[in-house]
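2024-03-11 09:14:02 INFO queue: dequeued item Flavodoxin family protein, len=313
2024-03-11 09:14:02 INFO validating residues
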Amino acid sequence: MSKVVVISGHPELEKSNTNKIIIDQLGKEIESIDVRRLDTLYPNYQIDVEAEQQALLAADVIVLQFPFYWYSVPALLKKWLDDVFSYNFAYGSKGDKLKGKELITSITIGGPAESYDPLGYNHFTIEQLLHPIQQTAYLAGLNYHAPIYTHGMVYIPGVYNTLEDVEAKAQAHATRVIDKVADLLSSQERQVSALVKAWFENMDNLGEDETPFLSELDENVVFHVPEGEYNGHAGFKDWYRQLRNMFDTASHTLEQVVITPSEVGFKADLRVRLIARTASGEDVNVLVNEEWQLSFKSDQPKIVRYQVDVVTG
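2024-03-11 09:14:37 INFO prediction written
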């Protein structure tokens, strides 16, 4: 199984002063890696969908490596996304094949950092311009991570930068990607991601046994939820009994998952869709934002604070 798949979206990688260095360094430093050079695999833009989907299925971490072209991905990478992220693979009633995998966007940007600002000539931040990719990840069930990008990655002799400077930036950029991949493959962050997934799978069942939840909770956990405030394991049990009495069926869909380091350990920002039927037969369709604070005890993540805010419903 390939733990890491890198999708190289540069249309002419051999001519690149930066992306080629990054791709080469990733290939040397990361074990169990599959580098998919779209420019050599598909020079005619005829994507082998089955081969690409199999490469994604074999990976735990997906890296999209590309230069920033007109505030987006190059056309070749866009074609790859359009073809490979197909119905019932990446979305649709059976489209859960990528769910739970990690997505890293690694981007080289020619323009200076100050230009990607409301007062700069590009007006928007890189994060804002990447919202379409971020939403694609959410719809496909991928765990989206903050993009890794470097500005000033363009070399025009006598006009922009020196070749040595650009190549040094590319090396430093590759190191950041390698470090992020290493963190995800062995990391506490991945454990948090697995906890989030398991938590809502158990919530869908609404079983009588509370034990699967208690093992994920700090003894002094605090819940701030629409039903009130609940403290500790005893408080969770009270809240959970209310939920079991309130709902006959429940289905939770994770629409957004963002996990970031925090002072106590990690913070998980979640957008969750609840579709349920109450004990009285009423249908419920609610969108909520959840914020979890987690710390690690005995090498296991524990929820210390759990807050739910209703967005619509």
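2024-03-11 09:14:37 INFO annotate: The longest strand covers residues 247-261.
2024-03-11 09:14:38 INFO item closed
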